[in-house]
Structures are given as C-alpha cells and as structure tokens.
Amino acid sequence: EKKRPRGAGKENAPKVAKPSSAKGSGGEKTSAPGLEEPIQFLQTNPKKAGGTSFHRYEKYKHAKTVKEALGLGAAKGDIAYDWKQGFFKRV
Q1: The pLDDT of residue 20
Q2: I need a labelling partner for 9 at 20 to 30 A (CA). Which of 16, 19, 75, 91 fits?
Q3: Is 22 within 8 Å of 83 (Cβ atoms)?
C-alpha cells in the first residue's frame, strides 16, 4: 500500500480554530498586555497554597505592570498562565 505525502487529502478537512489568548472583561479573546500597560492582579491568591507559584504570586500581585511583576519575581510562564486564567486584567 502506498503512503500519501504528509498533508495530502486534507484539502476538505474542517478548519479548527486555535485558541489565541485570554478572555477580556467582555468575554472576547484579547492579546496579553504589553510590558508597560497598566494591569491589576487578583489580590486573593488563586494559586495552590504552599506551592512555589503561590509564594511568587504573593510577591508580584501588587504589581501595576507586567514589567513590574517580572521585576518582583514573576516568571514569564506565570504571566502567560495568569493571563490565560484571568488572574489579572488591563485597567
């Protein structure tokens, strides 16, 4: 049996939307804020108590920008995850 080249026969396959980023306050998908845009984190820590991300969040939850949060100890992965989960918003 002959194998088809990679991607062959997919011309009529349905297009699947890829998730972009977090929902904004109105429920629409929006891109993450820039480093200097004003933001506000949830002040009640949503992370698992006792975990390392919980302790980092406690340090950066008062930040007013992504740049400040990174300076206070947030990892880039924290910012991406927190945005996706809705743990902070633009103000």
Answers
A1: 47
A2: 19
A3: yes
Q: What is the pLDDT of residues 31-64, one digit of tens each?
A: 999 999 999 999 999 999 999 999 999 999 999 9
Mean pLDDT of the chain: 84
Closest-CA residue to 57 (of 38, 67, 42, 39): 42
R_g over Cα of the chain: 19
State how far the Cα of 35 lies from the Cα of 58, in Å rounded to an integer: 19
pLDDT at 19: 44
In angstroms, what CA-CA distances link 91 with 13, 24, 41? 41, 11, 10
- Spell out the residues 6+ positions from residue 11 whose beta carbon is closer than 8 angstroms to its own: none
Tell the residue number behind the tokens 């103000």, with chain if given.
91
